Amino acid sequence: VVTLSEPTTDNALALGVMPIGVVSGRGQQTVPNYLLDRAGDIPILGSIGTPNLEAIGAAHPDLILVDGTSVKNNDTETLNALSQIAPVFFTTQSGGDWRQTFTLTADALGLADQAETKLAEFDQHVASVSARLKDAGYLDQTYSVVRWQGDSAGLILKELPAGQALTALGMKRPANQDREGPGHSEPVSLENIDQIDADWIFFGTLGGSSVNNPSAGGSAGVEASRQALEEARQTPGFAGLGAEQAGHVVPVDGSVWTSTGGYILMDTIVSDIESTFLK
Fold it and tell me: Beta partners for 214?
């Protein structure tokens, strides 16, 4: 199996299938940072939206898993070329429901029963963490998810994976963020930096990537976010944020919190919240 997006790679690994080739994670030159321990040795066969057809052909896959982000603008010429290499299974359009995508991927791999079991485990994990957050009073507070790139901020809203995870846990968003966005991080000007504020801010970065250069290499782990946070603190207005003054800005892995993925990403966000508030 070759997987040509972050969600297809994530979901295959969650189901115990090790791809023979993958694409690099958004803003990175490797698989998504959060999957490095599981998939760091898998050959990289292109980047998001730009698969390397020659390398994929040389890998001789039996199946190619794609989604709406795998090929730029769903380029039919590239999709046809992929289908000449091996059967192509389209799991979802960009922004599709992650649970349905996980189930469809499992169907393509003949692992429907495993997917049902994994989803039940996820729901149990969410219910457990949510109940403990409520008991500790955390569900009465508000939470912002910020992607910081260079010297600017972007908001992760409710339609993106981190937003969906917060909703599932019953964690509130500030009034200006209690909505769905355009399907990617929504830019916030430095003049309006207060728009990223909340009782708590989850703060991530994706290395050198940007809207205009999404495949630029860079770091995306928690340490990279700590470094980005130190730079953000030099930005006018950042020190005045309530979350910053309260010491409630939490550096997180940007490849998890500010990008996209599948089952493993969603469960990792829940685990991150659990370890942050319920130690």
Answer: none
pTM for this entry: 0.94
Q: How far is CA 141 from the centre of its chain?
A: 23
Helices and strands, number each (H, E), in the chain = 11, 11
What is the residue-level pLDDT of the chain in tens, covering all 279 positions? 999 999 999 999 999 999 999 999 988 889 999 999 999 899 999 999 999 999 999 999 999 999 998 998 888 999 999 999 999 999 987 777 999 999 999 999 999 999 999 999 999 999 999 999 999 999 999 999 999 988 899 999 999 999 999 999 999 999 999 999 888 899 999 999 999 999 999 999 987 544 444 444 556 899 999 999 999 999 999 999 999 999 999 999 999 999 999 999 999 999 999 999 998
Rounded to a whole number of angstroms, the CA Rg of the chain reads 19
Residue 254 CA, distance from chain mean position:
8
List Cβ neighbours of 29 (8 Å cut-off, separation of 6 or more). 44, 217
Residue 3 is given by DSSP the state E
Query: What does DSSP say about strands 2-3 and 64-66: parallel, antiparallel, or unpaired?
Result: parallel
With contact defined as beta carbons under 8 Å apart, do 19 and 12 qualify?
yes
